[in-house]
Write a structure and sequence with these properties.
The complex is a heterodimer of chains A (153) and B (267).
Chain A lengths: L1 E7 L2 E7 L5 H8 L18 E4 L2 E4 L12 E3 L13 H8 L9 H14 L5 H7 L11 H12 L1
Parallel strand pairs in A: 1-5
Antiparallel strand pairs in A: 1-2, 3-4, 3-5
Chain B lengths: L6 E4 L3 H10 L3 E4 L5 H6 L7 E4 L9 E4 L2 E5 L4 H5 L2 H6 L1 H7 L5 H6 L2 H7 L6 H7 L3 E4 L3 E3 H4 E3 L2 E2 L7 E7 L3 E8 L6 E9 L4 E6 L6 E2 L1 H9 L3 H6 L15 H20 L1
Parallel strand pairs in B: 1-3, 2-3
Antiparallel strand pairs in B: 4-5, 5-10, 6-7, 6-10, 8-9, 11-12, 12-13, 13-14
Bound molecules: flavin-adenine dinucleotide (FAD) and FE2/S2 (inorganic) cluster (2 copies).
């Protein structure tokens, strides 16, 4: 076991973790932040995406010990304290960017990361940036539409 | 999926990392983790010790050094993609780095990890070989020609750490890959580098290990056009055939990717 201290959604968290614990399991099982999902578990689908010190990463492909001293933002950390949705969350709702919702937390964490890196991504850019996020329901059209809407706003 | 238990240690210096490695029965270095962690989860490897290189200072940079571009081993693909020095010196390298996997993979994966792993379908080995780069390690300098020794194998000794790669800056260069539609790894990727006095072509994805194509080099030296590249008949002998494509298909792709790489170099 290793003692780690990190910031999760703005709060300092200290915990003992087994060295082999993946960040996604630490978030879900120890911190009970179950918005971050495990889809493929093989680094392909992006359902587990969170921000590690400001960058979107796959939490199934990082050990929790690697996040020691860093800051992590999960889907639970996006909305305002009073519950007002983050603009990307609101746009996914508005534009029906989800059906079953399983991929949605990862899609939204990728979308917020993408919008931070690109000023006004066009449809083609958005599709390329979503390379590492798989959705089995929507056919992506409304996901792209939702992200475009935020980019344009 | 959990990997088998192991001990995690964050090394603060190269020396400390090598010492830790030497003391362990079975250790692995951890850089971006984009290959190591998935293979540990699948229990294809189960090291006793994982030695993290991520806290060692001075391994993440891209800077001009005379007629060379030097890139630190832990420079992540996203940081190479966004480097103004790299863009100015070797734009083809930016193109390559920004087409590896997906954004989250590029946020973690590193140059050193990629070449140390030497996946037959990895992108970076083609740039290292075509640009005739020098790989700097904790112990010595290794020429690209001697570095990639076979499928998933390199000239690195037990415990040796890649610290940077020094790329000579070509007059012009281009990279084109046909990505596997699922993984984005190269079905075939071709890097063409023209130095004026010499011209080098390296092919990845097509064979068990990155290789130079001398016939293509000779033809392009005489006539640097996409048509020249496309006109060369590539033999499928020794190329990879698998569920993604036959050796014949890959041979055909080598010519097409080479012509696109030349087109990119001329653009
Ligand atoms: C979904 C997905 C898609 C991908 N797509 C592509 C793609 O399109 N093209 C492509 O080229 N790659 C692709 N990759 C691989 C990616 O580029 C990895 O970053 C790369 O293969 C390994 O680099 P790493 O830094 O993650 O190394 P790690 O996984 O940390 O390490 C890999 C190996 O190298 C050793 N090692 C690491 N650093 C050093 C060092 N400095 N010195 C000595 N040994 C070292 C490790 O011990 C380990 O054995 C993909 C990966 C994933 C998960
Ligand atoms: S669960 Fe992490 S990428 Fe699919
Ligand atoms: S909404 Fe169901 S997987 Fe995307």
């Amino acid at each position: 076991m290793t003692a780690i201290t990190l910031t999760v959604n703005g709060k300092t968290v200290s915990a003992d973790v087994e060295d082999r614990t993946l960040l996604v399991h630490f978030l879900r099982d120890q911190l009970r932040l179950t918005g971050t999902h495990v889809g493929c578990d093989t680094s392909q689908c992006g359902c587990c995406m969170v921000h590690l010190s400001g960058r979107a990463i796959k939490a199934c492909t990082l050990f929790a010990v690697q996040a020691d001293g860093e800051s992590v933002t999960t889907i639970e950390g996006l909305a305002a304290k009073d519950g007002t949705l983050h603009p990307v969350q609101a746009a996914f709702q508005e534009h029906h960017g989800l059906q079953c919702g399983f991929c949605t937390p990862g899609m939204i964490m990728m979308a917020t990361d993408m919008l931070a890196r690109h000023k006004n991504p066009d449809e083609d850019k958005i599709k390329k940036e979503l390379e590492g996020n798989l959705c089995r329901c929507t056919g992506y059209l409304n996901i792209v539409k939702a992200i475009r809407a935020v980019a344009e706003a | 999926m959990y990997p088998a238990p192991f001990r995690f240690t964050r090394a603060k210096t190269i020396e400390e990392a090598e010492t830790l490695f030497g003391k362990s029965q079975d250790a692995r270095y951890l850089s971006g983790g984009m290959t190591l962690i998935p293979t540990m989860k699948l229990r294809l490897v189960a090291p006793e010790d994982v030695i993290d290189l991520n806290a060692i200072p001075g391994l993440s940079f891209a800077r001009r050094d005379g007629d060379r571009l030097v890139v630190g081993a832990r420079t992540r693909h996203a940081d190479v993609s966004a480097s103004p020095e790299a863009l100015q010196a070797i734009p083809a390298l930016i193109h390559l780095a920004s087409h590896i996997g997906d954004p989250a993979v590029r946020h973690r994966g590193t140059l050193g990890g990629s070449i140390a792993n030497n996946d037959p379908a990895a992108d970076y080995p083609s740039a290292v070989l075509a640009l005739n780069a020098t790989v700097k390690t904790s112990r010595r300098e290794i020429l690209a020609e001697d570095f990639f020794t076979g499928m998933f194998s390199t000239a690195l000794e037990e415990g040796e750490i890649v610290t940077s790669v020094s790329f000579p800056i070509p007059r012009r260069a281009g990279y084109a890959k046909f990505p596997n539609p699922a993984s984005r790894y190269a079905m075939v990727g071709v890097f063409v580098a023209d130095f004026g006095h010499t011209l080098r072509v390296a092919v990845t994805g097509a064979g068990p290990c990155v290789f130079r194509h001398t016939e293509m080099e000779n033809a392009l030296t005489k006539n640097f056009t996409p048509e020249t590249a496309k006109a060369i008949r590539i033999s499928p002998d020794g190329l990879n055939g698998d569920l993604h494509g036959s050796a014949e298909y890959r041979a055909h792709l080598v010519g097409i990717m080479a012509s696109r790489a030349v087109e990119a170099a001329l653009a």
